[in-house]
Amino acid sequence: MLNKYLYTALLAVGLAFGGPLTALAVEQEVLIPNDTFFNRQWGLEFINAPQAWAMLEQSSATPARDIVVAMVDGGIDFTHPDLKDALWENPDETADGQDNDRNGLVDDLHGWNFADGNNQIKPLGKTVADTGAWEHGTIVASLIAGRGNDDIGMAGVAWEVKIMPLVILGEDGFGGTELLAQAIRYAVRNRADIINLSLEGQEEDPDVAKAIKEATAQGVLVVIAAGNGHEGQGYDLDATPLYPSCHQGAADESVLVVAGLNAQGVRHETSNYGSCVSISAPGHGIFAARPTYEADGNRVEVPGYDTWSGTSLAAPLVSGVAALVKAQHPAWTGEQIARKIMATARPFEIGVDSQGLGAGILDAQRALIPGDGDDEVYGPWKLLASAPGQAPMVWVVNEQGKTLFTVPVGNPGDKRGIRASFVRWDEDRRPEVMVSSEGDEAGAWRIYRLDGVLLAAGQAAADANDKIKGGVLLAAQDVDADGRDEILLTEAQGHRLWQLTLDGLLDGPLDLADATISLGNMAVGLQRPIQGFALLSKEQPVSKLYILSDYGLSDSQDINTSNPERLVMSQGRSDDGREVVVLVQSGQPTYMLERQGLLDVVDFEVLVAWWRYAPLGKAQSDVPGALFYDAWPK
Prior knowledge:
634 residues
């Protein structure tokens, strides 16, 4: 296998742990778990994890057990006492020898082994020269999700989360970049919240870079170890870039690259450093779990714990803290979690050389402390727009209904009502708003910054003779994972749609009508696992549903149309993180539930965590006369 295809586990084995540590002096409550070896886990106290646990214990945060961390690594010993309850379960798969979820993988109940092409996620007994590589997945998993406060073993940072094991490294610690890209995409499709990559390679693979961008564009946080140097010296990544640590996501702060520190808060000598690094965390003398049997297949039980060093140990500490932040803020995207973790990093001590070590030292407590104006920076927000009869206006409100931004969006005398959508248009980290007037026959659109500055404007109509029936409806989504949205303008009472990018309208409208009479199109943005749009072409007697993604326009799916004039479509998220599209005519809604990238009609009511009401809006009482159109983050 050529070097460009090799990824190796980042691990230095240390059989001794030296130097007593004293607890950090704090004024806040702490939760000290009763795990047998917690007193050896200096890194958790160093990042103020006990204070963070106490804060979550007293809060009404979402249980961390609802958070999924995909670990792309080697196999894990899921029978280990600290990991036996940590496995993610695939809700669409059954142990019956069939590919129930239609993803091409049979019985991927708890993840997948991409290296061997099967569902064996436990390290196989095999004699290898470097047993550290064989143990690697178990070590990393335990630092993220080792079950804590259970009177045994050690504690992970987020001891309730679920681990999705995606095996690409063999017992020798090597695997291919093509497997890495496949594993990242599997994690995204299966709704992982965080992806941990404790591995490195020497050459950039464009497909891995694309997979990371796809993940981050869809709201997933990717945490990557910075890597270890050679012969006791870390590399300067600006001079010797390594991958995937020097890949970027769809936004500048959607990937966290982690360097390693020792107990004195100084860079561990073998840790890489440089401008690729986002943050630093303990990575020397880290106590963690190992498989409870030997690599040669000997089933005699051995001590299931040891001490190691390397940035492989630093990255899962960050992933664990990210999972706690996600539990506290379920609506936040990976980028927002990354921004919060970096913004709350603890400064290095005076005199410490922090060059190339990122924003500072990981601090779990600070990451969980609500910041002044967090909701004004991170959301969640609602986008409201003026109903017919009012002056054209949009309002951005927070979760409590407080108005954060009020933006006039046109001629005050135009009281036709405003249609609106959040859109990622420029390069800052705040959304912009796109608007169009209801029934505007030119299909005119405008994009505003939240401070009211007009950024762009145009129209769908080709000329004065081209009439847009009912005006245009708006939908936005980052289809190509470049950090900016593509926009669909759909003819509200006709059968055409226009694709709009930063460079302007693409050539010519797309015509979806298969019938002589078309009663309108609409679109909603889909986030995961497909980054794209659901398109509804309302026709008589059968309407059509399409999926438009980076791969093109799908074949249509028939929707029986009993009352097409009143047929509307909204998009939401189920309580287990699936994409939901609901079609409502005049009676019971039709639910379409995402299953491995397909929208299947289901015959049961879907429990929905939240909705977006774009493109048609819904009456909103917080601002009298306003309609609720969209939510942020996407």
